[in-house]
């Protein structure tokens, strides 16, 4: 654990995947990424070897994203996001469609989906990152998957 | 391949894509015009509907008339202060009545009477008692 600052930057791709998965606005995702990395660097010394460093990083990224998502949804009645220029990108793998459908999930459903389906974590790890019980994480995953099945229909 | 497996495969692909770049183009934030206008209207309505002290608006009409009276004669000053205390008590009671029942014209009139009495008292003692 002597190379902890390097470890923090080593986890940048993981943080990026989580915050970008959670936040549809690229500026928000950048803010969340920076905040997460700052928190990691600031509290790295306090990190006790009680669990994996990766799990700790994941937990911070998830919670920072959830907090920002909550804040944005709270003010969404007054402030809206407008795309600077509408673009249509080819989506042969259907991930664009999936990404748009994730907006219809609640914050926690989205977090559980990202961690379980995208990051392929076990429900125990998902629960630790989101801050809920394992059964609750399973429940969120089930609800997310049901909603997505309804929204996406047959995947490409 | 089941639907669940397809979802996992697409999610994994999404993860790889997210690592490279954000799927959405840059976005800017703006106020929703209707919501902003609604919020302003609500705020103005709340300010207008905010309960105000009905007695304060009556008292405001006499603002500037309650000047300080300088009386050198100690006996005359005591007499003035005693009278002023009585009038102030009458004003307080009238204001209280107006606050409890702002729609009763008699209480409003009573409040005006008490305040006018104070104005006259001050005028009388300002001119030498």
Quick take:
Chain A is mostly helical and 156 residues long. Chain A has helices at residues 4-10, 12-22, 26-43, 53-74, 95-101, 107-118, 123-130, 134-152; one strand at residues 79-83. The longest helix of chain A has 22 residues, at 53-74.
Structure in words:
The complex is a heterodimer of chains A (156) and B (129). Chain A is mostly helical and 156 residues long. Chain A has helices at residues 4-10, 12-22, 26-43, 53-74, 95-101, 107-118, 123-130, 134-152; one strand at 79-83. In chain A, helix 2 (12-22) packs parallel to helix 4. The longest helix of chain A is centred in the middle third of the chain and has 22 residues, at 53-74. Chain B has helices spanning 3-20, 33-49, 54-60, 74-100, 105-126; one strand at 27-31. Chain B is mainly α and 129 residues long. Chain B is rod-shaped. Chain B is built from five helices and one strand; from the N terminus they run H-E-H-H-H-H. Helix content of chain B is 71%, strand content 4%. The mean pLDDT of chain B is 90. Strand 1 of chain A pairs antiparallel with strand 1 of chain B, so a sheet runs across the interface.
């Amino acid at each position: 654990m002597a190379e902890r600052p390097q470890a923090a930057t080593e986890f940048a791709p993981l943080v990026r995947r989580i915050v970008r998965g959670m936040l549809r606005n690229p500026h928000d995702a950048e803010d969340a990424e920076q905040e997460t990395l700052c928190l990691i660097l600031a509290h790295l010394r306090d990190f006790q070897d009680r669990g994996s460093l990766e799990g700790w990083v994941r937990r911070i990224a998830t919670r920072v994203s959830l907090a920002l998502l909550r804040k944005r949804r709270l003010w969404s009645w007054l402030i809206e996001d407008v795309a600077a220029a509408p673009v249509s990108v080819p989506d042969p793998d259907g991930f664009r469609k999936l990404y748009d459908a994730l907006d219809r999930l609640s914050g926690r459903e989205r977090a559980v989906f990202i961690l379980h389906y995208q990051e392929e974590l076990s429900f125990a790890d998902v629960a630790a990152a989101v801050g809920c019980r394992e059964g609750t994480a399973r429940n969120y995953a089930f609800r997310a998957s049901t909603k997505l099945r309804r929204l996406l229909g047959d995947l490409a | 391949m089941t639907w669940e497996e397809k979802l996992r495969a697409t999610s994994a692909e999404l993860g790889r894509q997210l690592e490279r770049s954000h799927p959405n183009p840059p976005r800017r934030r703006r106020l929703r015009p209707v919501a902003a206008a609604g919020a302003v209207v609500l705020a103005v309505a709340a300010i207008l509907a905010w309960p105000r002290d009905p007695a304060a608006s009556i008292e405001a009409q006499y603002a500037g008339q309650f000047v300080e009276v300088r009386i050198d004669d100690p006996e005359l000053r005591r007499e003035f202060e005693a009278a002023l205390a009585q009038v102030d008590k009458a004003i307080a009671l009238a204001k209280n009545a107006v606050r409890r029942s702002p729609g009763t014209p008699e209480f409003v009139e009573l409040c005006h009477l008490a305040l006018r009495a104070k104005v006259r008292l001050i005028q009388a003692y300002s001119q030498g008692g």
